[in-house]
Design goal:
342 residues, 11 strands, 45% helix, single chain, alpha/beta
């Protein structure tokens, strides 16, 4: 009996030790957007705080004031354990490891960031093998921003020919090829680089959302902003955690974190984008920038190029992945239906 009690006591101590270890998980989230950016303030930080709440303090997330590396490095930083949690654009990673993510980068995807982000999470994870494409990390979130615009300081775009020779900043991915098709010269750079390049005249314009013009202080250097129904383009984003750190969290707390991530985080970040875009649109108008809808000829040129790129992308996906059906499902979820590009 004494031995039995001793054995039970030892097991209890081990259990208590494991619980204590699980209670002391602090995660560093590397954040490269400006600290006051609406997505950091209204999505990333509230989500981090909620993690502490749903795990009853056993897991804490510290959002760093400065990033641990360049924006394009952030996926690899999480995979390699340089940071515990990171977010970023799939198109910043200049290779084809995220081939399915281009689903969330095309034209005419939708004007509401909540619907688009939820559609991107659902369709990419269910139909296009998102978790395998983010191998080495635990996938916490996938989202898009609001509809992408074309902003420039040279001229109003009345016809596709007006884009000829313009040097346009792009975030990589689909929109880089689209700008080239339309006659512009695409120049890749991350968001924080744009202010300097635009103010120095290195670029003539930028593919960005409404909110980016105010978040990155660009209103003084731009004159024209062109919208396209459903977006000229979009960008696809990830939120990931180092897999080794994830494995140190108890199954109970993992489930609690997953419950407020995924689709729930897509809705949270989509709302933050929507609110930021609405506020920025008012500032753009106040700044005297000419905000106008793309003429029909420009929309048709975008549509023609987009269709070619969508078909080419669908043909490159692994066997069993139907990109055309995935796009149709995405657009049906954002209210555009299956004829968005017809």
């Amino acid at each position: 009996m004494t031995y039995l009690k001793t054995g039970l006591s030892a097991l209890a101590l081990l259990a208590m030790s494991g619980a204590a270890q699980a209670a002391d998980v602090t995660l560093a989230l590397s954040s490269w957007l400006p600290p006051r950016h609406p997505i950091v303030v209204n999505a990333i930080k509230p989500w981090a705080k909620q993690i502490e709440e749903v795990t009853e303090g056993r897991v804490r997330v510290r959002v760093l004031g400065k990033p641990l590396g360049s924006p394009p490095a952030h996926f690899d930083m999480a995979r390699d354990g340089v940071a515990d949690i990171t977010y970023g654009l799939h198109s910043f990673t200049q290779d084809d490891r995220f081939s399915g993510s281009q689903l969330g980068q095309f034209s005419f995807l939708g004007d509401d960031a909540i619907a688009a982000s939820k559609a991107f999470w659902t369709v990419y994870t269910e139909d296009l093998n998102a978790r395998a494409e983010h191998e080495g990390t635990h996938l916490l979130g996938l989202f898009t921003h609001g509809p992408g615009l074309l902003h420039n300081n040279l001229r109003k775009i009345e016809t596709p020919a007006d884009l000829q020779g313009m040097k346009i900043r792009v975030p990589g991915g689909y929109v880089a090829a689209l700008m080239e098709d339309l006659g512009a010269t695409p120049l890749f750079m991350s968001s924080p680089e744009v202010y300097e390049k635009l103010s120095r005249g290195v670029i003539d314009g930028v593919t960005f959302t409404y909110e980016a013009l105010t978040a990155f202080k660009l209103t003084d250097d731009l004159k024209y902003s062109m919208t396209v129904p459903g977006g000229l383009y979009n960008t696809s984003w990830f939120l990931v955690m180092d897999e080794d750190k994830w494995d140190k969290i108890s199954p109970e707390d993992q489930a609690a974190i997953d419950a407020i991530s995924g689709e729930a985080f897509a809705e949270r970040v989509g709302q933050a984008w929507n609110d930021a875009d609405a506020a920025a649109e008012a500032e753009i108008n106040e700044a005297g920038i000419d905000l106008y809808p793309a003429p029909d000829a420009v929309v048709e040129a975008v549509r023609a190029a987009a269709t070619i790129h969508e078909d080419a992308w669908a043909a490159t996906l692994p066997e069993g992945a139907d990109g055309t059906a995935a796009l149709q499902r995405f657009r049906s979820m954002t209210g555009l239906g299956t004829v968005a590009t017809q």
